[in-house]
Write a structure and sequence with these properties.
By secondary structure, this protein is α/β, with parallel strands linked by helices. The chain has helices spanning about 25-35, 50-60, 85-90, 110-120, 135-145, 160-170, 185-190, 235-245, 250-265, 275-290, and strands spanning about 10-15, 40-45, 65, 80, 95-100, 100-105, 130, 150-155, 175-180, 195-200, 225, 245-250. Strand 1, helix 1 (about 25-35) and strand 2 (about 40-45) form a beta-alpha-beta unit. About 45% of the residues are buried. The protein is globular, with a radius of gyration of 19 Å. Helices cover about 35% and strands about 20% of the residues. The structure holds NADPH dihydro-nicotinamide-adenine-dinucleotide phosphate. The site of NADPH dihydro-nicotinamide-adenine-dinucleotide phosphate has 27 residues, from helix 4, helix 5 and helix 9.
């Protein structure tokens, strides 16, 4: 028997802008499929409205919220508690209210790990080139370290930003963590043996769709190339990596798994999407195409 629509509690995603977000499509699919007692909507919250929105959440107007740009860091001091993973990454993408207290989580890391595992990409002892130094790169680095990756090479266009990031984590072991200069990345790749390349930059997504963060000549068939971008589903980087014969993975599975992990936190139940992953991807791609016509 289906749950009573009248007793459903509201969930939302907040951000600015927010109309492009695919989260409502994904979460509404999960709500429907697993018959969860929620509704899910997109709410535009501009930066100066963030404290007022958090108060509404605390007062019980919503059963939980996803958080996207530009609020992922700004929301942290407004919450009672943040999970160790969220604190380590320095960003919250999911808020769970419990007894009037707000708990911040980051499911990007779990989403990235589950997506890699589903694609049978194992990071243990692998030599990795991680492109980017923004929020997504931090979630990826968290996973790489947790999974026991071998040497991790970080390469960001703005070298000072990457240096600052690594210096901020100086209390942790810096063993096997290296910086590669952006201008020297092609030359470095030709000489430096890596098994996995991860693009956590926005080079390749609109308005930078025609840009690849790596020249085609740097790609080889013995690589696994992961692009966190899901819009477009096949970036120039992935097209070229495929042509070179590399294994490729786009950002859609990560998007799906981070959303599932968030829904598991709100609903308190494990959601097995093994049998419906392809259907969810299809739904998201259709929504994405409808928006880009
Ligand atoms: P940020 O804005 O925090 O960081 C952007 C990063 O992209 C920076 O490292 C920036 O470098 C780099 N960059 C931007 N343009 C270029 C360019 N032309 N050449 C080289 N580097 C460039 O963004 P996020 O970390 O939040 O997101 C990064 C990407 O990951 C986005 O494409 C986003 O869609 C994707 N993502 C996907 C998720 C998923 O579920 N699949 C989840 C989260 C993010 P610099 O410091 O030099 O400016």
């Amino acid at each position: 028997m289906k749950s009573d629509p009248g007793s459903r509690r509201r969930l939302c995603v907040i951000g600015d802008p927010i109309s492009h977000s695919l989260s409502p499509v994904l979460q509404s699919f999960l709500i429907e499929h697993f018959d969860l007692p929620f509704t899910y909507e997109a709410v535009r919250v501009v930066p100066n409205e963030l404290p007022a929105f958090v108060e509404k959440l605390r007062a019980g107007e919503f059963a939980g919220a996803s958080v996207t740009l530009p609020h992922k860091q700004a929301v942290m001091p407004l919450l009672e508690e943040c999970s160790p993973t969220a604190r380590h990454i320095g960003a919250v993408n999911t808020i769970v209210p419990e007894g009037g207290l707000l708990h911040g989580h980051n499911t990007d890391a779990a989403g990235f790990l589950r997506a890699a595992q589903a694609a049978q990409i194992d990071f243990k002892n692998q030599k990795v080139l991680l492109l980017g130094a923004g929020g997504a790169a931090k979630a990826v680095l968290h996973v790489l370290r947790e999974q026991g990756a071998g040497a991790i090479h970080i390469c960001n266009r703005d070298l000072a930003r990457a240096e600052k990031w690594l210096a901020a984590g100086a209390q942790e072991s810096q063993k096997e963590l290296h910086l590669v200069e952006w201008e020297k990345r092609e030359q470095w790749l030709q000489a430096g043996p890596v098994n996995v390349i991860i693009n956590a930059t926005s080079a390749g997504m609109p308005p930078q769709r025609e840009i690849s963060p790596l020249p085609a000549a740097a790609l080889r068939k013995d690589l696994a190339v992961i692009d966190l971008i899901y819009n477009p589903p096949e970036t120039l980087l992935l097209q070229e990596a495929k042509k070179a014969g590399a294994r490729v993975l786009n950002g859609l599975p990560m998007l799906i798994h981070q959303g599932v992990a968030a829904m598991e936190l709100w609903s308190g139940q494990k959601l097995d999407i093994g049998g419906i992953h392809a259907e969810i991807e299809k739904e998201l791609l259709a929504a994405y195409r409808a928006r880009t016509i």
